[in-house]
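Fill in residues.
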């Protein structure tokens, strides 16, 4: 049996399952980022880069305070606050729509009509590049970004500074 031949290696190399899992994650992330003509090109790209699975901290995924201000001033943003309702009601970034993290996946799966009816804004589309999530400090918005990416919103981003940075920079 193959498992009985592999299991002694797991005791010798306790990190092997983690490494295999990470490798698989990196390959999947690479495939999701680009369209490859062959599997070989996936592995070539994989060996020259090391994205972390579920890592929403790369620069392409992050919106800075100044970028957020520009997007808000030009009305070129779909800003979703993934904090809880009580946090949102206590204060929020102008034009942000509250979708608590716990209901984000379900909400992003709604039909455009149902989304519009529930949130009174246009539903985001999979290829929108102005879709931004934020929370209090960046942790929940990073999770929101991971959820959105898993659902196919490949160009979504998050405001890593969150409402905390917004309040600090806005002087409120």
């Amino acid at each position: 049996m193959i498992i009985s031949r592999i299991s002694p290696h797991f005791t010798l190399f306790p990190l092997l399952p983690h490494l295999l899992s990470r490798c698989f994650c990196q390959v999947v992330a690479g495939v999701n980022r680009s369209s490859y003509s062959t599997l070989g090109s996936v592995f070539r790209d994989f060996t020259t880069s090391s994205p972390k699975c579920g890592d929403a901290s790369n620069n392409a995924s992050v919106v800075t305070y100044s970028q957020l201000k520009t997007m808000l001033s030009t009305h070129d943003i779909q800003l979703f606050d993934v904090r809880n309702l009580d946090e949102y009601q206590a204060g929020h970034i102008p034009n942000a729509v509250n979708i608590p993290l716990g209901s984000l996946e379900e909400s992003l799966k709604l039909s455009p009509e149902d989304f519009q009816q529930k949130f009174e804004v246009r539903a985001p589309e999979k290829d929108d590049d102005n879709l931004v999530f934020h929370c209090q400090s960046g942790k929940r918005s990073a999770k929101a970004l991971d959820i959105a990416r898993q659902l196919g919103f490949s160009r979504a981003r998050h405001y890593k500074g969150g409402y905390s940075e917004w309040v600090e920079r806005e002087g409120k």
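The beta strands are 62-63, 78-81, 97-98, 131-134, 157-159.
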